Inverse folding.
């Protein structure tokens, strides 16, 4: 008999097969960490056409199909299973004429609400029809937030009643609101749910909010850092959900994400020109040289500092400050490499302009695309890494950067505030100091941190080396955060078993 918990994650992303941003990293990283702690972990994902199929092992279709309800009809779903990063994954392929996951992209379709409410229902149907009895169903972000009300309103009464529901919101900016009538497609009862104390959005009596529904209907609600959990409880930070969060505060907590230290390991990383570790930094030099060569940047001075930035180019990330950092770094005698792309057309255009401007420049390169291999090379090659976010629920890039000996320059917000601690701040114990931070989201604020970083780098090579060694040794693994999730799960399951009639 299995001793641990049986945990099923239902999500729209999982690294490396279907990743847009940090959500994908978290589903894989947390899943692996829980598995390592002896729990039975499974993942359910949509079967996207644009997945990285070469990263799925033993992919095969099951003989049985699962039928699920949508818009008044039953549709067949082909179910595929495979292994990703050692985790068993079920992929759902709807046999629906709209070809929901056959669009060449993960998100950004006009019918995203339909695509993911369909998926949420089909995932629960898969659990029900295959007789699975998870202890925890863990859903993530608005795309699978529907799972919480669907579970309690429709699936617990049908007998899928062993589970507790955990919902993690990775970013309260994306709430998936839609007009109330759209909710009925997946079988939820609009009349019951379009109420201010249920799924009705604060903006209008005719809009429903899946994230609000998940907060209300889940047993456990988490977000991805303690500071962000505080920020979203305020009217400025909560994007309309602060009062819902405050009235559900007993079940709401912020847990800092970890990173997958197997995938992000400079000592074994197959994408690198040369592997390295905290005790042997020679390889880092070689990566810097190789990246400069690959991108056509000048290698004339090995000690010219290289500043990296890898990000989705969206307002949250402080795009105007990123732009400013490019020019300011150049003025201060550094090099800058940006890897990023934008779903926002005017931002993408603006950065294409800057990319052109620096096309054959000796010290600046912009790469406006998504490229996993290149991201590893940039983390490894850069001396510093900039994250000037306006808000940041957790942020993984500062942790990855540190693991590769690149010193973060970050704005003190959300998870950045919980993981980057200023080297010049005497109130912070020396052993925790690991980067350069600034408070105000403007050019002066950024200059303050960037200039100090470059000065430190230039002034004392030996000290900088010790700083690199220190940040590379910080434990950003999932170990301690996975333990916190495990405790939440265990307590919730125990509460349910103690009083089985309570939801
Ligand atoms: P968010 O989820 O808000 O985008 P995170 O910092 O949590 O931010 O996670 C971003 C993840 O996506 C990191 O693993 C980062 O390396 C990766 N990433 C972002 N942009 C790109 C890109 N253009 N190419 C490759 N990887 C990227
Ligand atoms: C979201 C947030 C980011 C976080 C990631 C993983 O995309 O924007 O801050 O690190 O989710 O939780």
């Amino acid at each position: 008999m299995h001793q641990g918990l049986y945990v099923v994650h239902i999500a729209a992303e999982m690294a490396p097969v279907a990743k847009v941003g940090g959500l994908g990293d978290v589903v894989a990283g947390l899943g692996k960490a829980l598995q390592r702690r002896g729990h039975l972990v499974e993942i359910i994902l949509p079967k996207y056409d644009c997945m990285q199929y070469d990263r799925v092992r033993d992919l095969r279709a099951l003989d049985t199909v699962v039928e699920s309800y949508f818009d008044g009809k039953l549709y067949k779903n082909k179910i595929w299973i495979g292994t990703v990063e050692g985790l068993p994954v079920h992929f759902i392929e709807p046999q629906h004429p709209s070809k929901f996951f056959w669009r060449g992209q993960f998100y950004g379709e006009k019918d995203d609400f339909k695509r993911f409410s369909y998926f949420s229902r089909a995932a629960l149907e898969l659990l029900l029809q295959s007789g699975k009895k998870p202890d925890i169903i863990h859903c993530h972000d608005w795309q699978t937030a529907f799972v919480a009300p669907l579970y309690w309103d429709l699936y617990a009464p049908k007998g899928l009643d062993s589970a507790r529901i955990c919902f993690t919101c990775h970013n309260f900016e994306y709430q998936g609101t839609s007009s109330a009538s759209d909710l009925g497609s997946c079988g939820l009862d609009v009349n019951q749910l379009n109420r201010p104390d249920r799924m009705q959005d604060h903006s209008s009596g005719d809009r429903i909010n899946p994230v609000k529904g998940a907060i209300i209907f889940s047993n456990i609600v988490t977000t991805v850092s303690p500071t962000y959990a505080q920020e979203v409880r305020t009217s400025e930070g909560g994007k309309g959900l602060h009062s819902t969060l405050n009235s559900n505060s007993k079940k709401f907590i912020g847990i800092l994400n970890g990173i997958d230290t197997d995938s992000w390991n400079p000592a074994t990383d197959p994408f690198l020109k040369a592997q390295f570790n905290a005790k042997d930094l020679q390889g880092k030099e070689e990566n810097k040289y190789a990246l400069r060569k690959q991108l056509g940047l000048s290698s004339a001075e090995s000690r010219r500092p290289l500043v990296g930035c890898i990000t989705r180019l969206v307002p949250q990330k402080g795009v105007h400050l990123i732009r400013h950092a490019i020019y300011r770094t150049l003025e201060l005698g550094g090099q800058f490499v940006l890897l990023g792309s934008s779903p926002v057309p005017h931002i993408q255009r603006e950065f294409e302009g800057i990319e052109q401007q620096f096309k054959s420049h000796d010290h600046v390169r912009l790469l406006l695309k998504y490229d996993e291999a290149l991201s590893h090379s940039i983390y490894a090659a850069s001396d510093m890494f900039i994250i000037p976010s306006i808000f940041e629920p957790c942020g993984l890039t500062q942790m990855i950067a540190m693991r590769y000996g690149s010193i973060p320059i970050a704005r003190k917000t959300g998870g950045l505030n919980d993981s980057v601690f200023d080297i010049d701040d005497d109130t912070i114990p020396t052993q925790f100091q690991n980067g350069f931070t600034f408070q105000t989201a403007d050019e002066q604020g950024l200059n303050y941190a960037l200039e100090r970083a470059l000065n430190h780098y230039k002034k004392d090579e030996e000290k900088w080396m010790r700083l690199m060694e220190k940040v590379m040794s910080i434990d950003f693994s999932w170990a301690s955060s996975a333990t916190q999730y495990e405790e939440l799960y265990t307590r919730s399951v125990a509460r349910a078993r103690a009083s089985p009639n309570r939801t």
